[in-house]
Amino acid sequence: MQLEVWQNSVDLFVMLTKKLKILPYELNKSKMNTLDASHSVLRNIAEGYCRRSLKEYLLYLNVALGSCGELSSSMVAYHRAGLISDDDFETFDSLHFKIENQLIKLIGSLQSKLISGENHETSSTK
Fold first, then answer.
1. Hey, which end of the chain has fewer CB within 10 Å, N or C?
2. Which of 125, 126, 122 is nearest to 52 (CA)?
3. For residues 55 and 111, is the Cβ–Cβ distance under 8 A?
4. In angstroms, rounded to a whole number, what is the distance separating the alpha carbons of residues 28 and 70?
């Protein structure tokens, strides 16, 4: 819960739950898929952190990064369709970009540790 990327992911999910309320009923399935992609980012960061190995942690972080891509695609489509405002899209895009870059840096850092043979210390051993 102290990881900034996780905290930002929670903030993004909360923001999207509020912003996507305006979508019409016909898009409820799409809206729920978008929210699930956003929720997947924070869930996979947390689950990976709680895993017992660095390889597993990296796997979950990469899933979170993939969910970031899915989320971005949905929001670009909503924006192009005129379903969300320019301001709302810019707010989303800024935070999403920050999260994506934080994940890329965290993955790179952990990959370096894996290559050097360092062990991942899980929350249960701290």
1. C
2. 122
3. no
4. 17
